[in-house]
Amino acid sequence: MSSTSSSATSGQARKERPLSPHLSIYKLIPNMIASIMHRITGVALYFGTVLVAWWLIAAAAGPAYFDYVNGFFGSLFGMLILLGYTWALMHHLLGGLRHFAWDASKLISKQMSTKLAYATFIGSGALTLLVWLIAMLVR
């Protein structure tokens, strides 16, 4: 009887113990979102760089293939990919600068890190628009 109650008690205790760390425990905060997006944009930059390499290979392959690849990047779908690549580049750049400041033990307070997270999102959007505006004006 003692072993039965002992295993029932340990099973019950196992169910009541909190799982830590667990996603249901964390509150999603701006700094956390910025960190997750920094990782996602890093992966996106990897795939976007493959497209840049495709464009460079097309330039070396000859005018017909280069025109084909330029046609792809000039399409609505291609422009959306380039817009996303530009935003990912800007967001990852600003996120990297944020981490660089933290590595130097600067701007690391809770309030400042939250402000930097917001600044990363706003700044990446603004820089993306600026790059595209300049590209359209030069074009």
From TrEMBL:
Cofactors: heme
A Pfam family it matches: Sdh_cyt
Molecular-function GO terms, alphabetical: electron transfer activity; metal ion binding
Cofactor note: The heme is bound between the two transmembrane subunits.
InterPro entries: SQR/QFR_C/D, Succ_DH_cyt_bsu_CS, Succ_DH_cytb556, SuccDH_FuR_B_TM-su
Cellular localization per UniProt: Membrane
GO terms for biological process, alphabetical: tricarboxylic acid cycle
Residues reported to bind heme: H92
Membrane-spanning parts: 43-66, 72-95, 116-138
GO annotation, cellular component aspect: membrane
Membrane topology: Multi-pass membrane protein
Keywords attached to this entry: Heme, Iron, Membrane, Metal-binding, Transmembrane, Transmembrane helix
PANTHER family in the cross-refs: SUCCINATE DEHYDROGENASE CYTOCHROME B560 SUBUNIT, SUCCINATE DEHYDROGENASE CYTOCHROME B560 SUBUNIT, MITOCHONDRIAL
Assigned protein family: Belongs to the cytochrome b560 family.
Description of how the protein assembles with itself and partners: Part of an enzyme complex containing four subunits: a flavoprotein, an iron-sulfur protein, plus two membrane-anchoring proteins, SdhC and SdhD. The complex can form homotrimers.
NCBIfam families with a match to the protein in the record: succ_dehyd_cytB (TIGR02970)
Function: Membrane-anchoring subunit of succinate dehydrogenase (SDH).
The protein's name in its UniProt record: Succinate dehydrogenase cytochrome b556 subunit
Source species of the chain: Oceaniradius stylonematis
